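WARN no homologs supplied; continuing
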Amino acid sequence: MVITSVNRDDLEDGGSHHFALTVEQVKRALPDARVEVLTPDFCGDLEAVARVLEAGPHVFNHNMETVARLYKRVRPQADYRQSLDVLRFAKQHRPEALTKSGLMVGLGETSQEVEALLRDLRDADVDVATLGQYLQPRRRNLRVEQYVTPEQFDAYRDFGLSIGFKMVFSGPLVRSSYMADVVSADL
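OK structure emitted
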């Protein structure tokens, strides 16, 4: 089961109490359920991250979304290093939980930049990566710069596995919660 929400920067705690209470209630109602949370970065508030982790999710997911060079354009309200710090803290705070992050390709990044992001994620001790094709949801959103080939998605998966990810899901239709049941079962 994946629990997520839109960013709640309007709340003092970024919505971390809501995440924690939801995880606790799901675990109480469905004790055999495997719980993954897909969270914002909580504006770098590591106490908020800890609050969510202490509720006991099996998987902590925070998406990087794109490579470092494109971060300001793709995620203007986010910070590349801050997102990595959130993921690193999550693994340090609750080592038994899997950490996970995803990105979309096709926004003009190079394969070397994707590999650099995957290395940064491994340096932050992230266990699982997802890579999918970016698709423009509306005309006002960023345009697709390229459609990545299945062979390139395979190459990204192989590279990720070669540098130590436990799992890498990479393909045009892969999304952040892709195969969440398999990731949770890996515990």
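The beta strands are 2-4, 36-38, 59-61, 98-105, 128-133, 167-170.
OK
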